[in-house]
Amino acid sequence: MQKLFEEVGSLDARCYEEFFLSEDILMEHAAQGMASYIKNNFSNNEKIIIAVGSGNNGADGIALARLLHGDYNVSLFFVKEPKSHMALLQEKRAQAINVPIIPKLQECNIFVDAIVGTGFDGEFNEKITTVLEKMNTLEAFKIACDVPSGLKKSGECAQTTFHADTTLTMGALKKSLFLDEAKDYIGKIEVLDLGISRKLYETQTNWHLLDLDDLQLPLRAQQNSYKGSFGHLAVLCGEKPGACVMSALAGLRFGAGLVTLVGYENHQMLNIPHSLMYAHALPSNTTAIACGMGLGVEFSDNELRNFLDNDLALIIDADLFSMEVILELLERKNIVLTPHPKEFVSLLKITELADISVEELQKKRFFYVELFCKAYPNTTLLLKGANVIIGSDNDFFINPHGSSKLAKGGSGDVLSGLIGSLLAQGKSPLDATIHGSLAHTKLAQNYTGADFSLTPEDLIQGIGNL
Ligand SMILES: NC(=O)C1=CN([C@@H]2O[C@H](COP(=O)(O)OP(=O)(O)OC[C@H]3O[C@@H](n4cnc5c(N)ncnc54)[C@H](OP(=O)(O)O)[C@@H]3O)[C@@H](O)[C@H]2O)[C@@H](O)CC1
Ligand SMILES: [K+]
């Protein structure tokens, strides 16, 4: 698990004030970190171009050119003339050792984007946009210095933004790198130290990035056990029972001792897999309930109230987010909500927290998750997206390990089943959500077929090999 920060300016300031480090020392380490990355990954006959801007991001790029010059065929391309104090100083140092400067972009093997970093806002003018478009068509390996040029502090991207293969980011991870919109621009991310260990550079934060290694599987330590030892998940079965069957099968495969579909008699005629049970009421030993997937309009709010009139752990999804009964459910303690953006917008509206469009939500995902969790501190929220956000009270986590393989009907139903299964096995709502989500994204990563071909059945099948 790694720490995430809204901004790192205050962490830099702490280095100056408390650790007596200068801006020059920090920048030298940033440049050294980038130089080491290049030296460790590429041979010295590679041709390198570094495009620089007028601020300190550009200064990082000029310092990098000085460090590589002599060993590599490196050239600087000034997109804007140096302007900040550090950029002017770095330019003087580079000039003193005759680092080559090129007047326009050329093909190269390694390309470094140091036009703008955390100081960027607004949109680029036409001239820089044209340069960026050309940069994006280069066949070189593309490295972004700190952040891809065009990525704003908010995580929104300029109309033309640099497409990096790797982003070498300074000091600590910024949240903006993990807004959904940034996912196609940042490539792989590495954090570079700025003259002190990252552990000392970083301060306290309530936002964290989940690593796949954080995944804890519901492995069975106890041998003296029976099916009842591992909980009983009840899945409310509505209008579209296929969704519930997928959820239930995922729950069973992920370790719940028993899984029952609960619904009306007509579903008994369905071809329900033999490993699942079917009932008209909640089994007495139910330990968790999953509800909402494929629910449709089969149950009225009152019928749902009857099923959910208990203190059991509950995961809710899909159709439930637009039903009035949701307001009562939000008063429960052990509840997990897993909306996608459109459902979350509807939830924000029903709860009168905000009346916004999906586009507005996507621009401020972090803000709205915090808003909801503050209003409903007893719930655990998982907001689906390219990068999943999980929030509970004042703790927030981003799972960036998902991919477009998961963009398919039914994959959310599998997620509900995974989380429901962990709830049934006694995990806390937050732990069940974190580990269910990590398992879900790891299942997609483990899938070896073509990326467009992953089905919910493939996910369920893969659970045994997690
Ligand atoms: N702080 C530290 O200790 C350390 C900082 N470090 C590094 O500093 C970076 C932050 O540097 P920063 O604050 O100088 O900002 P930066 O990203 O270069 O952008 C400012 C420039 O952008 C320009 N610009 C803005 N908007 C624009 C637009 N719409 N369209 C066009 N241009 C636009 C603006 O130009 P202007 O408008 O002023 O002409 C200005 O010159 C950070 O990302 C990291 O790389 C590391 O070395 C580690 C130590
Ligand atoms: K950059």
UniProtKB/TrEMBL annotation:
Catalytic activity, as annotated: (6R)-NADPHX = (6S)-NADPHX; (6S)-NADHX + ADP = AMP + phosphate + NADH + H(+); (6S)-NADPHX + ADP = AMP + phosphate + NADPH + H(+); (6R)-NADHX = (6S)-NADHX
Keyword Ligase: no
Cofactor note: Binds 1 potassium ion per subunit.
InterPro entries: Carbohydrate_kinase_pred_CS, CARKD, Nnr, Ribokinase-like, YjeF_N_dom, YjeF_N_dom_sf
Biological process annotations from GO: metabolite repair; nicotinamide nucleotide metabolic process
Record key words, sorted: ATP-binding, Isomerase, Kinase, Lyase, Metal-binding, Multifunctional enzyme, NAD, NADP, Nucleotide-binding, Potassium, Transferase
Domain YjeF C-terminal: 210-466
Annotated binding of K(+), by residue: N57, D113, S149
Entry EC no(s): 4.2.1.136, 5.1.99.6
Residues annotated to bind (6S)-NADPHX: 56-60, 117-123, 146, 243, 294, 340, 413
Pfam families, A to Z: Carb_kinase, YjeF_N
Annotated binding of AMP, by residue: G412
Domain YjeF N-terminal: residue ranges: 8-202
Gene Ontology MF: a single term: NAD(P)HX epimerase activity
Cofactors (names): Mg(2+); K(+)
SUPFAM superfamilies in alphabetical order: Ribokinase-like, YjeF N-terminal domain-like
Family, per entry: In the N-terminal section; belongs to the NnrE/AIBP family.
Subunit structure: Homotetramer.
Function of the protein: Catalyzes the dehydration of the S-form of NAD(P)HX at the expense of ADP, which is converted to AMP. Together with NAD(P)HX epimerase, which catalyzes the epimerization of the S- and R-forms, the enzyme allows the repair of both epimers of NAD(P)HX, a damaged form of NAD(P)H that is a result of enzymatic or heat-dependent hydration.
Name of the featured protein: Bifunctional NAD(P)H-hydrate repair enzyme
Species assigned in the record: Sulfurimonas autotrophica (strain ATCC BAA-671 / DSM 16294 / JCM 11897 / OK10)
Lineage: Bacteria, Pseudomonadati, Campylobacterota, Epsilonproteobacteria, Campylobacterales
